[in-house]
Amino acid sequence: VKVAPGLGWLPLVALLACLAPAGARAAGGAVAPALDARAWLSRIQAAANHGNYLGTMVFSAGGTMSSSRVWHYVVGDQTYEQLEALDGRQQRIVRHNDVVHTLWPQARMAVVEKRETLAAWSTTPQAVDPQALDQYELHREGEGRIAGRMAAIFLLEPRDPLRYAQRLWADQVSGLMLRADILGPAVAGAMAPRPVLESTAFSEVMIGVKPHPEALTQAMPNLRKLEGYRVLRPQQQRTSLDAEGWALASPVAGFGLAGCMRRGMDNAGDDEPVLQAVFTDGLTHVSVFLEGYKPERHRGEMQAQQGATSTLMVRRGDYWVTAVGDVPATTLRLFAAALERKRP
Amino acid sequence: MTPDPHSLDPEASAQDPRHWLSALADGDAQALDRACAQWRDDGDARQTWHTYHLIGDVMRSDELAAAPARDAAFLAALRTRLAAEPVVLAPAPVAAVPSSRRSVWLLPAAVAAGLALVAGVMVVAHVGQPGQGGEAATLAAASSPRLAAAQGQASPIVVGNIIRDARLDEYMRVHQATGGYVPIPAPGGTLRRVDVEITPSPAR
């Protein structure tokens, strides 16, 4: 079982937060004291990874809305999680520790994958740079009520225009994130509040429930056999940019390379794997997919945005670059230009 | 505008007559005449046309993947049924005149409906085309009128992923599934975005 990234320094941070002069925390209002801030972020992280909760998540972006049911159980060192789309196409994601089954019951399709985490990818034990959140300024914004629970509100304000601001609502009691909004840049000169690009929130949630992992496994009696399903197990092979003949020529400010993976594209009906490089700034992440350019497959270059998620597809010589992330499109353009082919 | 915006090498592409079919399949109205002529004269062209559309269907949704034999069987059955339909040649009785007059009205209306349908398809297809200048808002971008407006493009507002691309879908899914990298994961973040497909009410 992988230790969640960053938890290594959680006890230390919590201890320091307790030892910090009370005045530092009582400052309140504007910028939250760094230690308090980090302690809260660690609490949010720990609650999501180690809590027992179930509820309904509502996701809204660009005028569209969808909801999904969430179950998260931790029994000893075993983690069970299930997500089920309640709208549109049926989709169910069942995770037991690192093994993730994604099922599309209507299409009788299943994808079985191994969940890769930062901690699992990193070669050093210090997976998450404690300075990562230096890209954002954390403001405490008081209290609010989400899904019938009292929540502490935080605003993570980016220090540069390469990323979006986020407003987080964390459960006062457990620290579980109850709502997260991604905010677009303020319109110059306008007094109006910044636009919410997308919002993810629990509409109802039960925290600290008794875990019933067997209910999840019972709901999926054929999870192991998956009878009648077409089961895809895409290749997932950890690698490095260097081994693949790429180099990070011009890093994007504030983003570090989290890992690199050779990944099968079976689900898109393609035999050839692509290279996925993941970058993170501590709060959000960007995926850059690299593959050989094929005129019959890669049509026009394009740039799209859905909610906060931008997508960019561009050709770079003999290669085709697809960048996806919850960042402005200009940031993706930097990523598309950041990687350079060292050798064919 | 070049005849085929997708072609990398216009000369090589122009020698291949199939590129007119490809262009029409992508909604390029300029290819209409030549592609139709080709379709009429060349049996291979008809097969190519079918293949292009099958590819398009599969790209949009795995569920549309079907053996070509099924389409052929459907077409054969349709032809048989059409052949079996009685041909209305008898002069219409006097009482039927209003209805036949109405059918005179109906015909252009039906044609117009057909044209409207084609136009609708064309508009959507145009959204999916690589735009002039490479900056075009395409695909899922159409769901964000903000972006379209920001780029000064008169893109139709399409709710949800109407134009689906299996490859892009997979990239988005993989990116979201990479939530393990996110130091502060939102609960349920891996399934943040679900496909809200709008199925036309008369089911297939």
Secondary structure elements and pairings:
The complex is a heterodimer of chains A (344) and B (204).
Chain A: H1 10-19, H2 22-26, H3 34-50, E1 53-61, E2 64-75, E3 78-85, E4 92-96, E5 99-104, E6 109-114, H4 118-121, E7 136-146, E8 149-158, E9 165-171, E10 177-183, E11 196-207, H5 213-219, E12 230-232, E13 236-239, E14 246-248, E15 256-263, E16 274-280, E17 285-292, E18 302-306, E19 309-316, E20 319-325, H6 329-338, E21 339-341
Parallel strand pairs in A: 6-12
Antiparallel strand pairs in A: 1-2, 1-11, 2-3, 3-4, 4-5, 5-6, 7-8, 8-9, 9-10, 10-11, 13-15, 14-21, 15-16, 16-17, 17-20, 18-19, 19-20
Helix pairs in contact in A: 1-3
Chain B: H1 10-15, H2 18-25, H3 32-41, H4 43-60, H5 68-84, H6 97-127, H7 145-150, H8 166-177
Helix pairs in contact in B: 2-3, 2-4, 3-4
Would you give an account of this structure?
The complex is a heterodimer of chains A (344) and B (204). Chain A has 6 helices and 21 strands. Chain A has helices at 10-19, 22-26, 34-50, 118-121, 213-219, 329-338, and strands at 53-61, 64-75, 78-85, 92-96, 99-104, 109-114, 136-146, 149-158, 165-171, 177-183, 196-207, 230-232, 236-239, 246-248, 256-263, 274-280, 285-292, 302-306, 309-316, 319-325, 339-341. In chain A, a hairpin with a 2-residue loop joins strand 7 and strand 8 (149-158). The radius of gyration of chain A is 21 Å and the shape is globular. Chain B is mainly α. In chain B, helix 2 crosses helix 3 and helix 2 (18-25) runs parallel beside helix 4. Chain B is flat, with a radius of gyration of 22 Å. At the A-B interface, helix 3, strand 1, strand 2, strand 3 and helix 4 of A face helix 7 and helix 8 of B.
Count of beta strands of chain B: 0
Biggest pleated sheet of chain B = none
Q: What is the first-to-last residue Cα distance of chain B?
A: 37 Å
Average pLDDT level of chain A:
81
What is the tally of beta strands of chain A? Answer: 21
Largest interface, with Cβ-Cβ < 8 Å? A-B, 84 and 56 residues
Please give the largest β-sheet of chain A.
Answer: 12 strands, mixed
